[in-house]
Design a protein that fits this description.
Elements (H helix, E strand, L loop, with lengths): L3 H11 L5 E5 L12 E2 L9 E2 L3 E4 L9 E9 L14 E5 L11 E4 L9 E4 L9 E2 L10 E2 L8 H9 L4 E5 L3 E7 L3 E2 L10 E2 L2 H11 L3 E8 L3 H9 L6 E5 L9 H4 L1 H4 L1 E5 L11 E5 L2 E6 L3 H19 L10 E5 L3 E3 L5 E10 L2 E6 L8 H6 L2 E5 L5 E3 L4 E6 L7
Parallel strand pairs: 5-6, 12-15, 12-16, 13-14, 16-19, 20-23
Antiparallel strand pairs: 1-11, 2-10, 3-9, 4-6, 4-7, 5-8, 17-18, 18-19, 20-26, 21-25, 22-23, 22-24, 24-26
Helix pairs in contact: 1-7, 3-7
């Protein structure tokens, strides 16, 4: 049986970016950059002051300062063409203002008597102190290489500052989500007390939307071979398909039974993991398709660990995989040999160290455990027996609220 890391590799080797589009940077938050940007601007435009003070010629200052004639005041945005200082002269200058010709240093106001016509500087400064040189941040023609990175508010600031008002981003994958099972009903059928409401699809869609996908919920398909085959035929127009339930080995698990009729080509059908052993992945007429377990925790874990990285890669992200961090066990854990577990744990930071506390039950039907926990703790096939308090473990954080 395939291992989780092998299964993830197979998924990521199958999917590829689906295309690019050019959009306004004001609409680009959360998208993935597809092309390098070339700066159209120098920042700063000219040598500028890093603080309020006096623009001076450094050699005018002795170790204990100097007394200088104030020629005027320069504010941020003022035109300094034609402004210059000679020896013994200075301009009062504001933060962000351009330096007049001849000035090479700025003395902060705190080191002066704040004079408006004649100012006494009380301390010497090194040449270039408190000056932001022209192009110190970036210059015309410089590259801004954020390809493969998610656009953050800081990225937006960078792009706009260099004059890039439009940018190329990777297209959002269109994902179809279907749930199966005669025992469940769509959320809009909330008055149906004879069936469980479909809690899997909303969780999957929520994870996919956070990952940047364009999601389409196609509803619930009952345990009926003909109806499931008909539903699968509609998936060809999407970039990815996700089917929750019906993937195990039971009599009514039709996803496994109709593979040949539907044209499904599975790359793997089970994974040596708990939760989520009966997960499948393959293609349907070239469309990547994920067969998710019906148990809600199993479904959520598989969506987090396999589906979300796939969606990230389809958007061109450089590092699409979820990454683990190190924690230490806060309680003893028993682990069976030969199985890879992803136990739900609560996290707590104590003196800079992350401590992991396993949830009271690891049943794959317990949705509440996903609400109250923060991470999946990975216990590999090398772990066996009782793991003592303080044992180092790897955790995948899916909810950092209240932790950091």
């Amino acid at each position: 049986m395939i291992k989780p890391d092998e299964a993830l590799k197979a998924v990521l080797e199958t999917v590829t970016p689906i295309g690019t589009e050019q959009i306004s940077v004001l609409d680009a938050l959360g998208r993935v950059v597809a092309n390098k940007i070339i700066s159209k601007r120098d920042i700063p435009i000219k040598d500028s002051s890093a603080m309020d003070g006096y623009a001076v010629y450094a050699e005018d200052l002795a170790s204990d300062g100097a007394t200088l004639k104030v020629l005027g005041v320069i504010g941020a945005g003022d035109d300094v063409s034609g402004m210059a200082i000679a020896r013994g002269e200075t301009y009062r200058i504001m933060t962000g203002a351009h330096l007049p010709a001849g000035a090479d240093t700025v003395v902060e106001r705190e080191l002066s008597d704040d004079g408006l016509q004649i100012v006494k500087i009380t301390e010497g400064k090194k040449r270039g102190a408190n000056v932001r040189p022209a192009k110190d941040d970036i210059g015309v023609g410089d590259e801004v290489d954020c390809v493969g990175e998610v656009i953050s508010p800081y990225t937006l600031s960078r792009f706009i500052s260099v004059g890039a008002l439009h940018t190329w981003v990777y297209a959002k994958p269109r994902v179809a989500v279907i749930s199966t099972g005669s025992e469940i009903a769509s959320p809009e059928d909330y008055d149906n007390r004879d069936k469980m409401l479909d809690a899997n699809a909303p969780a999957i869609i929520g994870l996919l939307k956070e990952a940047g996908a364009d999601c389409h919920y196609l509803g619930v398909v009952p345990d009926d071979e003909a109806k499931l085959l008909a539903a699968l035929k509609t998936l060809k127009k999407y970039d990815v398909a996700v089917v929750s339930g019906g993937i195990s080995a039971g009599d009514f698990d039709y996803m496994g039974h109709i593979s040949e009729k539907a044209g499904l080509s599975w790359k793997f059908h089970h994974i040596n993991q708990k939760p989520g052993k009966p997960m499948a992945f393959g293609t349907l007429d070239g469309v990547p398709i994920f067969g998710m377990p019906g148990n809600p925790v199993s479904c959520m874990f598989c969506a987090y660990f396999y589906l979300v990285p796939a969606i990230r890669k389809m958007q061109g992200m450089n590092m699409p995989e979820n990454r683990a961090v190190t924690a230490v066990l806060g309680e003893e854990v028993k682990k069976k040999k030969g199985r890879i577990q992803f136990d739900r744990v609560k996290l707590e930071v104590k003196e800079g160290v992350i401590h992991a506390y396993p949830y009271s039950s690891q049943g794959s039907n317990l949705i509440d455990s996903m609400v109250k926990c923060h991470a999946f703790m990975k216990l590999t096939d090398e772990h066996e027996g009782v793991l003592k308090v303080g044992t180092s473990v790897q955790v995948y954080i899916f909810n950092s609220s209240g932790v950091f």
